Amino acid sequence: MLHMTAFILVIVGAVNWGLLGLLNFNLVNVILSSVPGVEQIVYILVGVSGVYLAATHMNDCKVCSAKA
Ligand SMILES: [Zn+2]
User: For residue 1, what pLDDT is reported?
Assistant: First the structure.
């Protein structure tokens, strides 16, 4: 469950960053800026999820663990 949550957050962060680079459009900001504090929490959770996946992905992923 934590694995999936972290995965989804990393995807959200990556897509948001892509939109920001391509269109200068920050989806997370547009959706959450009306709620004080939540936008920053999402960014922090995305960062924590990235670190979590970087540390655990090799063990969880069939492709990566097969090559290791
Ligand atoms: Zn992998």
Answer: 80
Please state the rounded mean pLDDT for residues 23-42: 93
Residue 22 alpha carbon to ligand 1 centre in Å: 26
Instruction: Measure 35 CA to ligand 1 centroid, in angstroms.
Output: 35
The pLDDT tens digits of the residues spanning 37-47 come to 999 999 999 99
3-state secondary structure 4-62: HHHHHHHHHHHHHHHHHHHHCCCHHHHHHCCCCCHHHHHHHHHHHHHHHHHHHHHHHCH
CA of 56 to the centre of ligand 1 (A): 10
